[in-house]
Amino acid sequence: MPDQLFNRRDLIAYFVVAATGALTNLLVATLLQEWFHISYKSALFLGYWFSFVVGYFLTRLFAFNAKNTTQSRRQIVKFTLVSIWSCVITVYGSAILYDISTKWLGTFTFLIPFSVKEVNLNKLFSQVTAMGASFLSNYILHKQFTFRDTGFYDRLKVLLGI
């Protein structure tokens, strides 16, 4: 049972860790757009990589019981490769969904009660949807690739001449 792809303990732990990363990503991307007036895609990209650092340590410590391993360098390389793929899903998936939603449906906003902050619901929906797709991809790849000895790291070292 503990080696199953979708076992309950790993899935719940990974969900909590991923939710922390997703909230970090949302917060950083929102603040960057508000304070520095950078583009939606740039804010998503920077927010993603900020949450990458948080996510690595939390995933390693809590999600897949990999804290006792001696293969940290291998895991960092694999985690980075999976994260690059996840970044593509999150950033470009969000941007594509945002463009489609504004063209087909128009722009929807919501004023937070008792504040002056207006939330762009198209951006929020697009980012949360893309992060959901990224979550599923990450869970499977981290469980089956990052925190498992697959021989990939040894082949990569040979390929790079390290």
Would you mind describing this structure in some detail?
A two-stranded antiparallel ribbon has the order 1-2. The protein has 5 helices and 2 strands, in the order αααββαα. The model has no long low-confidence stretch (mean pLDDT 80). The chain has helices at residues 8-36, 40-63, 72-105, 121-146, 152-160, and strands spanning 109-111, 118-120. Helix 1 (8-36) runs antiparallel to helix 2, helix 1 packs across helix 4 and helix 2 crosses helix 3 (72-105). The relative contact order is 0.13. A hairpin with a 6-residue loop joins strand 1 (109-111) and strand 2 (118-120). By secondary structure, the protein is mainly α. The protein has one domain (8-160). Helix content is 75%, strand content 4%.
Short note summarizing the structure:
Keywords: Membrane, Transmembrane, Transmembrane helix. The protein contains 5 helices and 2 strands. It has one domain (8-160).
